[in-house]
Specification:
By secondary structure, the chain is mainly alpha-helical. α6 packs antiparallel against α7 (110-136) and α15 crosses α16. The protein has helices at 4-8, 13-24, 27-34, 41-50, 52-60, 85-105, 110-136, 154-157, 182-201, 229-237, 242-249, 258-267, 269-272, 279-298, 311-325, 337-346, 352-376, 387-396, 406-427, and strands spanning 148-153, 167-173, 212-213, 226-228, 252-256. The protein is globular and about 65 Å long. The N and C termini lie far apart (55 Å). Strands 1, 2, 3, 4 and 5 form a 5-stranded mixed β-sheet that branches. The protein contains 19 helices and 5 strands.
Amino acid sequence: MNYDALLKESPDPDIGEDRLQRLLEDSTARRYLDKLPDEDVPCFLNLITISNFIYRYLCRHPEVIATLYGAQTLDISELDSISDLDSLRHFKYKELIKISWLDICQRYSYQIVLDRLSLLAEYIINKTMELVARDLECNGLKNDPVPFTIFALGKLGAVELNFSSDVDLIFVSRNETDEMSYPDYQELITEQVRRFSQAIEHRSEDGFLYRVDLKLRPWGRSGPLIISIDETELYYEASNEAWERFAWLRARIIGGDRKLGDNLLERLQPFIYLRSLGSDDLIRFIKIKNDMSAQRARSGSWNVKLGNGGIRDIEFFIQMLQIVNATSHSQLKTTSTLKLIDLLTTKGFFSRKEGGDIYESYVFLRRLENRLQMVDELQTHKLADEPQQRRKIACSLGFGPASDDSTIEKFDRKLLEYRQVASSCFDRILPGETS
């Protein structure tokens, strides 16, 4: 294989050449690289050039290159034989590299990439909980059936997880138990959630599983890690916080007692979805919009998530339409932003062109966000101003070779186009003083 011409098309030919040479010096890596189909080699060079953490992982575990041949499938059968966190971390990174490959190659709908990222997180979360539960069973806590429900919110709830994102979780328990006194039961399941959080966030040489964010729970950081279904319902009945309503729009059961979770979601329907928009609701929503405007005014370089014309502009707009219309249009009761855009278009809230523009803009911005996070597996949303870094990102997204000055120009033009679509969504949300 003549790599020289292909390296010139990569995001950084010099770095790409060094990294490829390092891998070819390893007999295992060379064996699997030699088996890569010719059409896949540019994707591989793109992958190891743009992602520092993936390159380092492949240097330590060159056998993972072989899994790229079947990258379109998520191999969950291996989970059954995993009995420790180190093996689980290796499973996570092996599958994450396969998903990164799907993203880089651009041969599949981007919804598939987001689905795989979310599904991988769900499997990891449930397997981690299973490993933690084994240690607690000797203390009298039976986990068959699991005594609580795990709700995912945010991007995981929407089945649109990022490459390096916190997973927003809320744990809700049953009201009573026959196993032991209720205080003892609550203490044990709280300890299980605590150990789960420590286990899933623990860092080893190979990395970590996920960062867990539990602050969306009732009373936030000051509240219990897990409370009963009745206590949860009472809390939200008394809540006037608009942001909590928005958070539960994307709540989805991903583990534990599904019947318990379905029961709670049914109880919370009047809290989540408005039958009518009152003046107090308008004031709260305008405050959220103004807070978003103030936040972007304080930031430095453009932020693909929170900045003007960023991801949050589209999400807030779509969720506003959902929150006031889902009671009369029950199909809108879905957690996925992309599905909501399609449904709102089908139901006539947007023209086909407008809905298509919003959908395309959202996908592009999410691809850009994930590409930024793919570099070092960091939860970053800032696009660098420095031309060299922008050119690498633009090249990795398919806008042309890094050596061509027009690559960054084409990227910037397309980015501006999509940002204008997103910012027009934000500008249509309610009146109010915005910056």
